[in-house]
Every structure is written in structure tokens, then in C-alpha cells.
Amino acid sequence: MEKPFHIRDLLDTLHFLSIDEAKAETAGHAEVDEANRRLMESRAGDDDRKRLERWLAARREADEMGNKHPGDLFGTASALLSVLLVCFAVTAGYGGVFSFLAYTGTEPVNVLVFFVLFILVQGILAAGSALPLAFRIKAPESLSPFGVMVGHLLSRAMEKGLKRLPAERRSETLGLWRRLRGNSRAFGRTLFFLLFSRVQLFATVFGAGALTAFCTRILFFDTAFGWQTTLGESAAPQVVHRLAEGIALPWSWCFPQGVGTPTLEAVAGSRILLKEGIEGLSGAHLTAWWPFLAMGLLVYGLLPRLCLLIASRRGLGKAVHRELLAWPQVRLLLESVSGPSLATRVTEARRAEEAEAELNKRKSVTPRDNGDPGLTPARPTVLVPEELQDMIPELTHHLAAALMAPEIITVSMEAPAQHPKPHGRLYLVQEAWQAPIRETLDWIVDLRQSCPKHTPLTILLTGEMAEGTLDVPEEGHVNIWRKVVAALALPGLRVEAIKAEDS
Hints:
By secondary structure, the chain is an alpha/beta fold. The chain has helices spanning 7-27, 29-39, 48-62, 70-100, 111-134, 145-162, 167-182, 184-220, 236-247, 249-252, 264-269, 283-286, 290-326, 328-338, 348-363, 392-399, 438-450, 475-488; strands at residues 109-110, 225-226, 381-385, 407-411, 426-431, 457-462, 465-466, 469-470, 493-497.
């Protein structure tokens, strides 16, 4: 079974793609894509997962900053936070139970109060924690107010831990963490499981500490248990015994009669009446409750949290793997390292060779070979504004080498933006010399937001038509578009310049 991506891989990918985006603002995406293709020449992969894994390994090896990458630094901060959570949970669980079970010989430990504080509350919180998994909640904000508060505290603690990292990478790693938090639409499940797993770690260690403290009191101290009530002097023992039997159903099958649950006689004999004290009560009855309470701590406190902790760790790995491969920037990267660039000059001799190679490649790929079982290959779609429809023949001729059988659709930018269905990767043609005005940008934003989150959108900039051919767009115009589009901060949105062919 292939190992899924880790949160460290996600942060390192964000880091390297951020570097590429900064370079692309000045040098253009074509140069960045070409550098990534050269990096992957000897590291070809059969599917998207392997290609991304090998690209990430190559970038880590070529990184000039040394061995400490943002993912490693985040792992250090996360480990520090985990150690602090474990220490605090052990102190709270062990100290709370140990001090509650203090017995002076005159007043037994109240069974009902202990059960409510350390078993019932843990069971209710564990059941509440399981609800997000049952209903597949996608973001931390969808949790209860208590969950949001805990998530916020853990997030603040993570930021404080990152601030203790070495100065040369502190701001960069902290910025990546904040970027990951801000992009909840793309990485909602990853963020949820990242915080959820820390909550389960705290609760699991708390439960283990509470059970350890209970066993310590039973083994090394003389501890008596009893219960009190003002109501039902004659019927109360029967009610308490039936409640105990119902609670003990999960473990009653593995204990002899009267061990996993106190007998009715023991329940009645451990009732405390303040006016009579405990002098007349049997010691066997006062100690009959400890197996019941110990199993309650185990079954309703520790085991559910342990299961949730394991589920959260597995869920985090799956969420990172799926959302990383579906992220638009990663889709663009994988397409750029496995295919020709739109901004590359193409001769007629190369056009037929590349088109044939692309066709053979696509015929050999099945819908589930792309690393994401939810994505199915589809024809790329090129949207051409109505006022530029005269360019369609030349666009079709130029894009034939870079895209396999693209579907060209004429659209009106006066009408509301809607993405075509079905479609593969989306392209929008714009003239570079026309500055990106607010109306145009609003339409582009609406188009990007109407697309599924895994679908990238590329703006293709062209020059003016001259004698039936496309002129090369001026670099100054292209840079303006790149800066304005980068300021939109929309994932999966990039700018490419279409260059004229060599004759």
C-alpha cells in the first residue's frame, strides 16, 4: 500500500509553489514550468501521486536553504505542542482523580459524583467528538462552540510554538501555517483533522491519567465508596442497582456475577446515611464499587478517545493526500511537468509529434490513474469573449500542440459567469493590451468561484491580430496582468501569454 502524503509534505509543497509564484510574477509561468520540467526529466512517474512525490523530493534536494524545510520546522513545533498537551493532560487527569479519591476514614468517596465528573462527562464529550466524523464536517468552524474554542486555543498555541523556531525560517513557516488556515475551502478536512487529532490526544492522555490514578489509589491506599440520596429510602437501592447494571452492559459478559457490577446487597450496604455514619457498614460493601468505576473509566473514557485518536490520525493522512492532489495549484504543476507549455513557440514539425505523443499518452491513462479517484479526465475548455471570436481559427491552430482537442466556447462577459459542464481544465482568452478593469476582474472572480475547487483556471493573454496571425503580447502588459491577478489571491488562477509561432 502506498504511503499517503503527510502534513509536512503539504507545507513544503505550499512553500515551493509560493517560490514559483514569486518567480512567475517577473519571469512568467513558462520559465517556471520549464524549470520544473527539467527537474523532472529523470524522475518520471506513472500517476499524479508519484509525480508530485518525486517533484517534491527533487525540490527538497535542490533547496539552497539546507535540510530544514517548513514542513520539518512545523513538525518540530507540532511535536512540542504535543508534548505540552500530554504533560498538561497527565497532570489534569491523574491529579484530578487522585485528589478526588482522598479518603480520611470517616466519609467514603461519593460514587455518583465520581461517576458524573469522570465517566459520564467523558462519555458525553467523546460521543460529541464522534459526531463530526459521522456527519463528515468539513471545517473547524462547523464544530460546536466548545470545539471552536479548543481549536482556536490549539491554533494560538501552534503559532506560539512556531515563533520559537530559528529566525531564518520562523516568519516563512508561520506564514505558511496562516495561509493553510486561511484557505479553509481547499484544505478544510486537513485543518479539521489536524486540530481534531490534538484534541483527541489530550483527551486520551487525560483518560489514561485518570485510570492510572484510580488504580494507584486502589492498589496502595485504603479507599471506600458509597452513595447518598434523600429520596426513596426503600426503593433507592433497586434504582441505583438497575442503573449500574445498564451502564455495565458493555463489560458484564466478561466478569462473574457481582464483580463487574455490585450486587443489590452491596449497593444497599454502601448507602451512606449521615445520621448513622459508616461504622455499621460492611467493608466488603464499601469496596464493591471499584471494579465498576475502573471499567467505566476504561470503557467510557479511555477506549472511545483512543479509537477517535486513531481515526483522526488516519483521517488526517487521507485528507492531506486527497486535498493536496485536488488543489488547483498542484493540478497546474502536474500538468506543466507532464505536457508542453502554452507559451512555447511551436513549429509545424514539432506540432504533429507533440500532438501524437499527447494523444498516445491520454489513451493510456485511465480515469483513476491521476491520483484522485474523484477526478475524471475531460477535454480542456477555452472560453473566448464574443468580441474576440475572430481569433478562434488562429487560436485553434496554435493550441493544437499544447491541448488535446480543446473545446472552444464563445461567451459573453456581460452575462453572469458560469462554468461549462462537463469540462476539464478551463482557459479564458483576453487581450493583453486591454488593462484588467474592475468589471473584468469581477467576472473572472465569479467564474473561478463557480468552478469546482480542483479545477484550475488559466487566463491566456494574446496580442492583436495582424494579417491573420497573433502578435506577441508586450511584456509590460503581461506583467500588469500577472500582478493584478496575483493580488486576487485565488487558488488555481494563473496567467499565460500566447506567443506567435515561428514561421
